[in-house]
Every structure is written in structure tokens, then in C-alpha cells.
Amino acid sequence: MKITSTGIENGYFKDIFGGYSQYVNENKIPTYSIPFKIEEAPEMAKSYAAVLYDLDAYEVTKGFIWIHWTLANLLTTEVLANASQETSEFIQGVNSSHSPMGYNQDKETSSYYGGMRPRGRDHNYILKVYALDVILDLEPGFYLNQLHDQMENHIITTAKLVAKYRQFH
């Protein structure tokens, strides 16, 4: 399985998907989600789940990675740009903006894509996609641990996409 995105140019996510976007919520968190395509998907996959996160945030937050987007029960192999705001073809979990260590944003607002705003330097972002042999029993607003609990023993294969976003001022 392989993941590609038309939202990447020269190894960087385009500005529209992060802090330099005009699409932000009331807390100034970017909301225009990245597009991606799952290629060479296993035939036996019944659904897909994905997590977009920033390991480089560990230094900035002084102790935890930043989760930008979680989604589950994706039944197709393509997610269009801004699908987080415009589609109900999958369910979405809570991002790190909900955390009191983040922006303490309410759960409902945080249950969408929360775009990239790296501090200090350019950050690497990882989109990890899981091909699953089931449709998960999750509700919108699920937490990352709930996603992992549900996926246990149901992951057929995984793939990841790594790209940068430029430092946000």
C-alpha cells in the first residue's frame, strides 16, 4: 500500500493546509484538510483509518506529539482536499487542539482536521494510513486510544506519507 497527496510540492504541504491558509476556525486553527490517495490497497480491506501527526511538536510542547487529524471508517481510497469540512464519508476523532496542553478547544470543534502551525523551524508531518479488515465501532469525536483499541488485531497493512510544513510565525 502506498499513500500519495496532490497537496505536497517539493516535499512540503501547500500553505492552504496550515497556518498560512485563509481557512481557519474561530480559534484560528487551520481547517482546510489535506487530500490523499491510497494506492495499491489490499483487496480484502473493508475500511481505512488515518492519523496525521507531528513528532517534531514534542520539543515545542515539551512532552507530547501533536495529533492534527484522525479519521476512521473511510470506505474509499481517496480523500479530497477539505473533506474534513465537506464530507460525511468517514468519521473523525479529536485532534490535539482539544487538550488543555494545546488550545483547550471544545471537543466538537476539535473533531475535524486541525492544520499545521509549526513553531521554531519547519516540521515533518506523518500521515499514517491503516487498511483494516473491519468497519470500526466508533462515534464521531473518538480519541486516538479508542481508535487504536478498535484496530487491534484488524490491521491488514499500513503505509505512511511524510512531508514538511514551513515554520509558522
Q: Helical percent range?
A: 10-25%
Outline type: globular
Number of helices: 4
Low-confidence stretches: none
Number of strands: 10
Strand order of the biggest β-sheet: 8-6-5-9-10
Question: What does this protein structure show overall?
Answer:
By secondary structure, the protein is mainly β. It is built from 4 helices and 10 strands, in the order E-E-E-E-E-H-E-E-H-E-H-E-H-E. It has helices spanning 57-61, 83-86, 107-110, 144-151, and strands at 2-4, 8-9, 12-13, 36-39, 47-54, 66-74, 78-79, 91-92, 123-132, 155-165. The strands form 3 sheets. A 5-stranded antiparallel sheet has the order 8-6-5-9-10. A 3-stranded antiparallel sheet has the order 1-4-7, with no helix packed on it. Strand 2 (8-9) and strand 3 (12-13) form a beta hairpin.
Secondary structure: elements and pairs:
Layout: E1 2-4, E2 8-9, E3 12-13, E4 36-39, E5 47-54, H1 57-61, E6 66-74, E7 78-79, H2 83-86, E8 91-92, H3 107-110, E9 123-132, H4 144-151, E10 155-165
Antiparallel strand pairs: 1-4, 2-3, 4-7, 5-6, 5-9, 6-8, 9-10
